[in-house]
Amino acid sequence: MKLPHLAYEFLRWFTWIVLPATATLISALNAAWAWGWPIDAILSTFAAVETFIGVVLGIAKYTNDKEEAEQ
C-alpha cells in the first residue's frame, strides 16, 4: 500500500510543525496560568505520537524511494 503524496506531506507537516508547537504551547500556558495539568503525561503522549507517526512516515518514504529506484 502506497501513501499518497498529499497525505505524506500533510502528515510530515503535522508531525514536524504542529505537534511540537502544540506541545510547547500547552506546556508554556500550563506553567504561566498554573492550570495544574499533568504536563509530564501530556508531553510524553505528544512525544510518543510524534515518534510513531515519524517512524511510519520514514518507512513509507523508504519503501516508496526503493520502489522508484527499482523502476
Structural key phrases:
71 residues, 86% helix, elongated, mainly alpha
Could you characterize the architecture of this molecule?
This protein is mostly helical and 71 residues long. The protein is built from two helices and no strands. α1 (5-33) runs antiparallel to α2 (39-70). It starts with a helix and ends with a helix.
Radius of gyration: 16 Å
Query: How can the largest sheet be summarized?
Result: none
> How many E strands?
0
Low-confidence stretches: none
Q: Characterize the overall form.
A: elongated
Helix count from the secondary structure assignment: 2
Along the chain, the helix and strand elements come as HH
Strand content: under 5%
Structural class by sheet pairing and helices: mainly alpha
N-end to C-end Cα span:
17 Å
Percent range of helical residues = over 70%
Mean pLDDT: 94
Briefly characterize the structure.
The protein is 86% helix and 0% strand. The chain contains two helices and no strands.
